[in-house]
Amino acid sequence: MTWRKPPEDLQLDTAYIDVWRSRIDLAKSDVAAYAGTLSRQERERAAKFTFPDKYEEYVVTRGLLRKALSHVLKRSPGTFQFDYTASRKPYLSCSAGDAPVSFNVSHSHGQALVAISVDRNIGIDIEKIRAEVEYEKLARRFFSGAEFEALMRCPPEQRVVAFFATWTRKEAFVKAVGKGIAFGLSEFDVNVNPVEAPVMLATRWNPQHVSKWFMATVDTDENYQATLVADGGEFQMRLWQDHASSDRM
Ligand SMILES: CC(C)(COP(=O)(O)OP(=O)(O)OC[C@H]1O[C@@H](n2cnc3c(N)ncnc32)[C@H](O)[C@@H]1OP(=O)(O)O)[C@@H](O)C(=O)NCCC(=O)NCCS
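That is the input. Now the predicted structure with coenzyme A docked in place:
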């Protein structure tokens, strides 16, 4: 699948989940333009980031979210208001009659992803593959026993990629549920092979939920792993990037 420029008349479609991407290191003028679309509350939060890369990560991701929503809902980016669940998952404040649009965002070391859907619970996660990460320690601590064993059965040279594939599958799921990692990462099993399509293998709180959740790998860059998770039946993805500065990704 390729990342395309979105057509002007792009409409939300229940059969698809739209994924938008951007580099974080945009030109200063582009970051400033995104900052100009944020709410007062978001600008206050952005101002608290003392490291410039963290500031840019937040502003570009929120700016991309507002731009993507604006593109499909045909409203100005600054008009959207977000509310937060008790676990801090943001969602669109809706007026009566609005389409039930859901979204989720993720950012990691220079890349931002935004997923938008209609009437589904969705979660997205991207991670840069970092060889220096102590993946065995992290996997032992956070993965289920079955996942840890499957990871250790992978050839050593493939383990770091398998670790990040598994990590994004698990994080995207707990973000789709909305609880974040407080949900309990060892409460469920996913497959660990990064080359295989991602799939939920076991859901210990209710075995029937294993068939409720659908996953897809988001191919964004060879140095990253990213996964999208949704309920509401099988889905197809549409991949969009529309910023000139994003073309080098
Ligand atoms: C959500 C969580 C998995 C994020 O993981 P991460 O890999 O560090 O970050 P990502 O870049 O993938 O995602 C961050 C985005 O996820 C969204 N998000 C935040 N909390 C979320 C949640 N509970 N569920 C789904 N999405 C969430 C936000 O949009 C956030 O972006 P922002 O901080 O720029 O607004 C992790 O922070 C978590 O578990 N949070 C739960 C916190 C919690 O339980 N808080 C209790 C009340 S304070």
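The radius of gyration is 18 Å.
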